[in-house]
Amino acid sequence: QFPNMIVTMPKDENEAKNLVYTAMHHAQGPIAIRYPRGNGLGVEITDKREHLPIGTWEDLTEGQDVALISYGPTLATLVEVAKTLAEQGIRARVINARYIKPMDTTVLGDLGAKNTPVVTVEEAMLNGGLGSQIANYFTDHGYTNRIKRLGIDDTYIEHGDVEQILEDLGLTHDPLVHTIQQFLD
Length: 185
Known about the structure:
The chain is α/β, with parallel strands linked by helices.
């Protein structure tokens, strides 16, 4: 990582447009906008351009039992996971960590103060990823939240169909629901 580098990843095409708009008007250092392999989600593109304040996250669902934190297209899956968990009485707060760096310390402080269990899901390496950064934040600030990091271990991933790779990694709907249930038991 580069000092003062801002790293983002949009959840969909509209957020990508807004992050580019934000980056164009940001003069205090470089901004990297990650994008997923393959196609976007296919959301309807709006004409509205919105500045997304640096380092802010977004709640996609509300819940107090567990926080599911991710970025990029994984969030669409997590919203569906939250619906399934709600049917089982588990209220999940899905958080769009669109700014991977810097993190939203207001959200993290709130989660820490409430001792909310946290599950991070990344289509990226776990070592040094968002989940690791969140765990470090909690430790550095004296929070004792339980945290489960889901993503890619330090191993080579074969090139192939994205959906098949995610399934093999346990990062699709059903395995995520199962893993989160086990984590909360």
